[in-house]
Amino acid sequence: MKINSICRSLAIALFGTASALSAGAAEPLKIGMVVPMSGPFATYGKEMMNGAKLYIARNGDTVAGRKIELIVKDDAPGTAGDVSKRLAQELVVKEKVDILAGFALTPSAAAVAPLATEARKPMVIMNAATSMLTTKSNNIVRASFTLPQNTAPIAIWAAKNGIRKVYTLVVDYSPGHDSEAQFKKSFSAAGGEVIGEVRVPIKTTDFSPYLEKIKEAKPDAVFIFVPAGDLAVNFMKGFQERGLSKAGIKIIGPGDLTDEESLDAIGDAAIGIYNSFHYAPGHKSPENKAFTEAYAKAYPNDRVNFMAVGGYDGMHLIYEGLKKTGGSAEPEKFIDAVKGLKWVSPRGPVMIDPATRDIVQTVYIRKVEKVGGKLQNVEFDQMPDFKDPGK
Ligand code: PHB
Description:
CATH topology of the largest domain: Rossmann fold
Radius of gyration: 22 Å
CATH superfamily of the largest domain: Response regulator
Helix content: 40-55%
Distance between the termini: 61 Å
Structural class: alpha/beta
Number of domains: 2
Bound molecules: P-hydroxybenzoic acid
Strand content: 15-25%
Number of strands: 15
Shape: globular
Largest sheet: 9 strands, mixed
C-alpha cells in the first residue's frame, strides 16, 4: 500500500515534469557521439570532435529552440563492433540521446546500424566509408564519403595518364575490399591492367614482404588503400627503404594515404603521390578559408583534415534537419528532412542523395607538393557531383 502510493506519487511527479517541459522550454537535444578517443585511432575521434565542436561554436548551441548537448563515448579501438554497440546502447538507454553520431571506422558503424532501427534513432555517420553502410538502416545518413566514390576518379585518371599496369594493396577489411573492387572495375574499364593484388592485416606495421613482391612484379604504380594514420606512415617508410620509388614505381590511391595529419610524419617521400579525395585543407573557396582559419584558431596544434570536415558537416546536417522538423529527431521526420539537403561545405558543394542517404560531392584529383615549406595535397582536376558508384 505504502509502496503503491509512493509509486503513484513518483509517476505523477515524473509525468508532471515531462508535461511541464513539453509545454514550456524545449528539452535539450542530446547527440550521442561514438568515436575512438584513445588507442590506435585516437586521432580520428579527436579530429571529428574538433570539427563537430567548431560547428557548434560558429553556429550557436541552440537549434529550433533546443539546446544541443554532445555526449561522447570512447569506442577504442574503433574496430571492435561489440564495444561500439554496447556504448551506443548505453547512450540510448541511460543517456536517452536523440541522435547517434560519429563512427570513425566501418566495424563500429556496422555494429550499431541495427540499433538505429530498433531504438528508432537517426544515425549520422561522420567518417566510416564502406559503401553498404547506409543500406543497413533507413535511419542512417552519411556526411563523409565512400571508398568507391574516392577510388573511381583516381583509377580513371591513372588510366588516362599513362599508367597501364598496377599492383593493388589494401587493408583486409570492408573499406579495403570496396576500394580494391572499385579500382579494378574503373581501371580495367578505362583500359588499364591489374597485374597483382594483396590484402594486408589492419595491424600491419612492416610492409616489407609485400613490397618485395610488388617490386618484383614491376608495375607502373601501386594502388593503395590503408585507413589514414600510422599504416600510411609505415607503408611509405617501407616503400622508400625497399627502393620502390627509386625503381620508378608510382603510388596512387584515395587520399587517406596522404591525410594531412600524417603528411608531416611521411615527409618528402610523399611528394608526387597522385590521389583522389573529397577534401583538402588547401581547397580554394571562401567557405574553406573561413573554416580553416577558425579551425587553426581553435586548435592551433592540429592540422585540419577530412575527419574534422566530417564532424563539421555532420553537425551541419543535424542542425539543418532539426530546423526543418521544428526540433524533432523522430527518425522518419528527421531523415525525410535531410534527404536532398544541399549546402556549400568547406569541401565544396554537397547534397544528400535522397535515394541512398549518402553524400554527393566533388571528388578532386590531387598531387602532393611542398607549398610554402609545407606538404600539401594540391587539387588540379575534379569530378563534380560525384555519387557513390558502389551501390
Ligand atoms: C573506415 O573504417 O570506414 C575508414 C577508416 C579510415 C579511413 C577510411 C575509412 O581513412
